[in-house]
Automatic annotation (TrEMBL):
Its EC number is 3.1.4.58. One of its GO terms (molecular function) is ligase activity. A motif (HXTX 2) lies at residues 136-139. Keywords: Hydrolase, Ligase. This is RNA 2',3'-cyclic phosphodiesterase. The lineage of its organism: Bacteria, Pseudomonadati, Pseudomonadota, Gammaproteobacteria, Enterobacterales. HAMAP family: RNA_CPDase. Transmembrane segments: none annotated. Pfam families: 2_5_RNA_ligase2. It comes from Yersinia aleksiciae. InterPro entries: Cyclic_Pdiesterase, RNA_CPDase. It is an enzyme of class 3 (hydrolase).
């Protein structure tokens, strides 16, 4: 006798690695990549691809389709104004091997949006770190040795007029972040819905 697999059950157990984030404008991504190349030697760490540069708001981890749908519905109910983000800080977390660009004084809207998304995720059973939210863009990974940080950042700014749900996909030795859905801030138009 041959066992057949119930396709519905397989679909229900399929997990996706998801996170909410702010996308960086393409021009800003390219500016950051150039600035990083000018300020860090190749041995400093593994550079993040320009297309993968983003500011994480809430990491969700491995999520089922049903839980993802609930989180997307909750995100769609968020009503908040857009805000400006200035990347004017830089740091190195040797324990996790991350070199990052961040905000010295994050805008209140950014902190509120991250808190809302993290709270919704926690209530839906997605583990949230007890560490305080530290808005940042990861520049390099694998930076476990001491690294000379530039005395000054490039002080890049961008307008956050939407936030997104991304899926992290690892294939052919590379990680790619695919947009699942986008929600506007401050009355902006909805930009993308993959569903």
């Amino acid at each position: 006798m041959i066992n057949t697999v119930d396709k519905t059950r397989v679909r229900e157990t399929h997990l996706r690695r998801l996170f909410f984030a702010l996308a960086l404008p393409e021009t800003l991504q390219q500016n950051i990549v150039q600035w990083r190349a000018d300020n860090f030697p190749p041995e400093a760490g593994r550079p993040i691809a320009a297309a993968n540069l983003h500011l994480t708001l809430a990491f969700l981890g491995e999520v089922s389709a049903a839980k993802a749908q609930i989180l997307q519905q909750q995100a769609g109910r968020i009503s908040q104004s857009g805000f400006n983000v200035t990347l004017d800080d830089i740091g190195h977390w040797p324990g996790s091997g991350v070199i990052w660009l961040g905000c010295k004084n994050p805008p209140r809207g950014l902190l509120q949006l991250a808190q809302l998304l993290r709270s919704q995720a926690a209530r839906s059973g997605c583990y949230q770190t007890p560490l305080p939210f530290h808005p940042h863009v990861t520049l390099l990974r694998g930076a476990v040795r001491p690294v000379a940080l530039p005395a000054k950042t490039h002080n890049e700014s961008f307008r956050a007029d939407h936030f997104l749900l991304y899926e992290s996909v690892f294939a052919r030795g590379r990680t790619r972040y695919n947009i699942v859905q986008s929600w506007p801030l401050a009355g902006s138009e909805r930009r993308f819905d993959a569903n």
